[in-house]
Amino acid sequence: MNTLFKRFVCVIALAIGANYPSLAQTKPEPLPVVFADVPDLAMIRVGDTYYMSSTTMHMNPGLPIMKSKDLVNWQMVGYVYQTLGDNDDLNLVGKKNAYGKGSWASSLRYHNGTFYVTTFSSTTGKTYIFTTKNIEKGPWVEHSFKPSLHDHSLFFDDDGKIYLAYGTGKINLVELKEDLSGIKPETQQIIVQNASAPAGTNINLQAEGSQLLKHDGKYYLFNITWPRGGMRTEVIHRADKITGPWEGKLGFQHLGVAQGSIIDNAKGDWFAYLFRDYGSVGRAPYILPVKWENGWPIIGDNGKFPADLKLPVSKGLMPGLVNSDEFTRKKGEAALPLAWQWNHNPVNDKWSVTARPGYLRLTTGRIDSNVLQARNTLTQRTFGPTSSATTAMDVTNMKDGDVAGLLLLQKRYEWVGVKATATGKAIVVGDGQGATEVEAANIPINQKVVYFKADCDFTNRVDKAWLYYSLDGKTWTPIGNMLKMSYTLPHFMGYRFGLFNYATKTTGGYVDFDYLRLSDKITAKQ
Known about the structure:
It is built from one helix and 35 strands. It folds into two domains: 2-299, Glycosyl hydrolase domain, family 43 (Tachylectin-2, Chain A), CATH 2.115.10.20; 341-519, Sandwich (Jelly Rolls). The protein has one helix at 2-15, and strands spanning 42-46, 49-53, 59-60, 62-68, 74-81, 107-111, 114-121, 126-132, 141-145, 153-156, 162-166, 171-175, 189-192, 203-215, 218-227, 233-239, 247-252, 258-264, 270-277, 283-293, 296-299, 341-343, 351-352, 360-363, 378-381, 386-394, 402-409, 413-421, 424-432, 438-445, 449-457, 464-470, 477-484, 496-503, 510-519. Belongs to the glycosyl hydrolase 43 family. Keywords: Glycosidase, Hydrolase, Signal.
């Protein structure tokens, strides 16, 4: 909870602009290489292929693995786990949830022919190490133990010892057992007493996000910290021995881009991979050039973004990280493509893409009071600078009290859908921008299929969204209030498009979604 509070303070600072003291600059700000929520990134290179892991917290399947040939264009290749655990928080039981929790920052390694991905969770109280011989196809083997080691970095040293560096402010080091079943007794030690020190003494967020590597015989430790009144800042420490002594320096302090590490390509060129809080779209990755001077990695151009990054051209996020889905499946295809994730643990017998071929069927299985506590909400990332999602929904088999539709998911949410009552059905907007959800529109209908659209504008962090409905799939009518999107705790995640269905009176009703179609174009702004 202490760490969550610290991050809450940082998010509040972000909301008032503390992270962006240079907004008055006249030059356009550099855009992320992935304009979507891909936070806490960790990377490795195997041959000419890069692999990246990231945080998706309460979403399932979780701990995504992506690959790239150029550090700019990424595609999903899999997830490390289907569900992290089985408890009330992860199952949305009662009033409990795992928003902003689940699993956090991962570490990614390749050692002696085996891939390793690690994470940790305050929700389960465990540290996890997953292993596989095939990072793209799996299977993954889970090793887990207590306690949950915050923002740790897995490291294989040349002498065969396996370490985790972790912590907040004080960076600790522990040695792991050879079978990865836990920590070797009496091996815990503090290796950096105050990792925030290179950024000054007035610190808001103490150093965390450890990433540890070795280069030219020296050890390098990368962390993020946040000076009070300043911005997210990368700090770097180095040592001749993993146990220290460590010396530190300021690594990068520009536009709040921080947290990550460095990686080389097959030619020997070096790059930094970091991310930035980019408003309500989430935490977005950046790639910066690195050069070595006097045994230190120098990120960017004299501590700033270069005028010309000279990176490969981005081909966009579709179909690599997000993708439209017609819900048609050929024999042998996965039930859900990798772009999809469930909000919390799914109930697998209450959804189907085979009950009615060509459709996603969501069936209610319990009584819920609002969409944030509803199970089986299926989501994809929103993305920038603008993104749009449209869907068609067959409402024939809804029961009295059922609510279903298209959602913009975050703590401050809004959805457009259909609410069924004993006297009929109506298109309704659920506005969750305040303390409680309010009904922002109600339009009675008498037809089987209705169409919905959600448009998002993340340009220059304007963070606005609009909802629409259609009775024929061609003519769109705006409905409800403009949503002023906000990146907030407790969700700690960029906005998501979501398809949902929940019951408020009687279970067993269902809706059939014909498709989800994504676009980077939005309707003219209202």
